[in-house]
Amino acid sequence: MNSPIIQLLVLAAIAVFLILRLRGVLGTREGFEKPPVAQPVADKRRKPDFEVIEGGPDNDIADHVPENSPAADALAEMKRADPQFHVGEFLGGAKGAYEMILMAFEKGDLSSVTPFISEDVFEAFQSVIDQREEQKLTIDANFIGVSNMAVNDATFDKTTKEAEITIRFASEMTYVVRDAGGDIVDGSDSEVKRQKDVWTFARVMGTDDPNWRLVATDA
Q1: Secondary structure class of 213 (helix, strand, coil)
Q2: Band of the pLDDT at 55, cuts 50, 70, 90?
């Protein structure tokens, strides 16, 4: 056997040896396989998709009163005195309180709303109720809903931490006043009465009592 053939056989044997070693280390792949992609590890400290700008406008306030107005400053002070206070949530509660107090007054029974009205408001409402009873008048009222409401004003006393928020309400109801004989003397069964009220609610911020109380009313 001549020298060139021997050299070829030796090289072929080396090539086979290397192939076997590589198969043992890398394994085999059939077709084209994409290399595995490392999955990103969740970072609990990842920043949110939005950035809160320090010193930027508080939309909870700016959505309801003009920026930099006295009312906006008062609402901001309320939030500093009571971090749990939220203007939007307050307005939702005021809307429900408006219906509840108004209908209690129309029905002539304030017992269910006494914790939510001041002594002065209670006396004023009760005086009207007493006059209706003396005249033997009865009221049949059905509340339809609040068509509009907005913050009219807000004040905050830093010394006493007493907050007051005045709200304009526009509501609709059916309203009928009947005399002792059952005859209608005011209102109508078929016509909707549109009513406007300006109510002021007050609370001492930062106390354990979460209730706002109606302290003043106006038309």
Answers
A1: strand
A2: low
Residue count (the chain)? 219
Lowest mean pLDDT among 24-33, 39-48, 182-191, 206-215: 24-33
pLDDT of residue 45: 41
Helices (H) and strands (E) in the chain, counts: 5, 4
pLDDT per position as a tens digit, 118-177: 999 999 999 999 999 999 999 999 999 999 999 999 999 999 999 999 999 999 999 899
Helices 119-134 and 87-107: angle between axes, nearest 10 degrees: 30
What is the residue extent of each domain of the chain? 70-218
Among 38-42, 179-183, 198-202, 203-207, the range scoring the smallest mean pLDDT is 38-42
Rg (CA), the chain: 38
Q: Diameter of the chain by CA atoms? A: 138
Residue type, 33: E
The residues, any chain, with a CB within 8 Å of residue 75's CB and separated by 6 or more, are 61, 64, 65, 87, 154, 156, 165
CB 121 within 8 A of CB 104: no
Distance in angstroms (rounded) separating the CA atoms of residues 71 and 49: 32
Domain 70-218 has CATH 3.40.50.850: no
Q: Which helix (H) or strand (E) holds 147?
A: strand 138-156
